[in-house]
Amino acid sequence: MSYQYLIVERPADGVALVRLNRPRQYNALNLQVLTELAHAFQTLDNDESVRAIVLTGNDKAFAAGADIKEMLEKRPHEMKNAPFISGWDAVALARKPVIAAVSGYALGGGAELAWACDIIIASETAVFGQPEINLGIIPGAGGTQRLARTVGKYLTMEIVLNDRRLTAEEAARFGLVNHVYPVDTYLEEAIKLAAKIATRAPLAVQYAKEAVLYAYEAPLQAGLQHERLLFYTLFSTEDQKEGMQAFIEKRAPRWHGR
Ligand code: HXC
User: Fold this and answer.
1) How confident is the prediction along the chain (258 residues), in pLDDT tens digits per residue?
2) 82 lines ligand 1 (CB under 6 A)
3) Ligand 1 binding pocket includes 67 (Cβ within 6 Å)
4) Which residue has the least CA distance to atom 24 on ligand 1?
5) Per DSSP, what are the bridge partners of residue 52?
6) Smallest Cα–Cα separation from 12: which of 180, 188, 182, 185?
7) Domain holding 68: CATH number?
8) Which of the residues 46, 111, 115, 195 could staple to 146 if both were Cys, CB 3.0 to 4.6 A apart?
9) Are residues 129 and 243 in the same domain?
10) Would you say residue 256 lies in a domain?
């Protein structure tokens, strides 16, 4: 896959690494970046050899948000009809686990890209924020909803109403970031984590992700029911038989993804 603003690599078995690569604009997300992101994620999600995806920027910026210069003259229908939102959607809707490796600025739509991922690894320099209010707009790719569901109403209000920025340490303390590492190692750590997840039973990983995300959608009873159905369904897979047999035989399981 070759793109103007993305670099896609395969740094470890089963792992795809997607780097945003528009460094002079702090990886500002213009329509071209977002279109490429949607294409890359849809392609990798459908690639059986990919078991986990890492999304990153560079050490100075994960992404400083949607491209303000490009948005300036837009009308509502142009925003709505352009394949603009598809970038965030493709990340959020991936069936494979997605790990964000964030360093430097993760602002506006850049932060929302991280919130759309399943696990967030940050460098010590990461700064998260939703500064849209300074531009006379609000977050439009999930910021208000995903933040409120994760950190609650009050902190979210401060972040979106008053551009409160969070350091990596604060974001970790509030449950938005899984781990914080030095800038020299955060990406390597994210890839290591992805590589470990990539060794696990693929269908179980996929169903586990689906079940967790369903907690955002449904009341508890419906969520429990959904979890149970996915749980029962896994008993139709070869991997369930293999995983349990391997445990009994005291050996490592060999997953086939079926
Ligand atoms: C377009 C951007 C940009 C952005 C940075 N640049 N962020 N261009 N859109 N979001 C460009 C600058 O214009 C500049 O280009 C170059 O990158 C370097 O930026 P500087 O501002 O000169 O650098 P610095 O002083 O170091 O400040 C870095 C920064 C700042 C703190 C990240 O650039 C900043 O505040 N950016 C905007 C952050 C923001 O408001 N994001 C939310 C966007 S709205 P030139 O050509 O002038 O050198 C959004 C809505 C999401 O995301 C909606 C989802 C549906």
Assistant:
1) 789 999 999 999 999 999 999 999 999 999 999 999 999 999 999 999 999 999 999 999 999 999 999 999 999 999 988 888 999 999 999 999 999 999 999 999 999 999 999 999 999 999 999 999 999 999 999 999 999 999 999 999 999 999 999 999 999 999 999 999 999 999 999 999 999 999 999 999 999 999 999 999 899 999 999 999 999 999 999 999 999 999 999 999 999 999
2) no
3) yes
4) 26
5) 15
6) 188
7) 3.90.226.10
8) 115
9) no
10) no
Residue 161 belongs to what domain range? 6-198
* 221 and 163 inside one domain: no
Residue 6: alpha-carbon gap to chain centroid: 16
Same domain, 122 and 173: yes
Q: b/e map of 5-39 (b: 16 or more CB within 10 Å)?
A: bbebeeebebbbbbbbbbeebbbbbbbebbbbbbb
Name the active-site residue from 108, 109, 129, 243.
Answer: 109
Q: Which of ligand 1's atoms lies nearest the C-alpha of 140?
A: 55
Expressed in angstroms and rounded, the spacing between residue 25 Cα and the centre of ligand 1 is 7
Q: How many domains does the chain have?
A: 2
Q: Does the Cβ of 25 fall within 6 Å of ligand 1? A: yes
62 close to ligand 1 (CB < 6 Angstrom): no
141 as an active site residue: the answer is no
Indicate whether 241 belongs to any domain: yes
Which helix (H) or strand (E) segment holds residue 19: the answer is: strand 15-20
pLDDT of residue 83: 87
Q: What pLDDT shows up at residue 82?
A: 86
Nearest CA to ligand 1 atom 12: 25
Same domain, 10 and 122: yes
Q: How many residues does the chain have?
A: 258
In a domain, 147, yes or no: yes
Pair 53, 32 in one domain: yes
Q: Quick one: 117 and 16 in the same domain?
A: yes
- The yes-or-no answer on residue 94 being catalytic is no
Q: Is the CB of 63 under 6 A from ligand 1?
A: no
* Nearby residues of 34 by Cβ (< 8 Å), 6 or more positions away: 83, 84, 85, 86, 87, 88
| Span from the CA of 172 to the centroid of ligand 1 (angstroms) | 24
Asked if residue 219 belongs to a domain, the reply is yes
Catalytic residue among 40, 66, 100, 141: 66
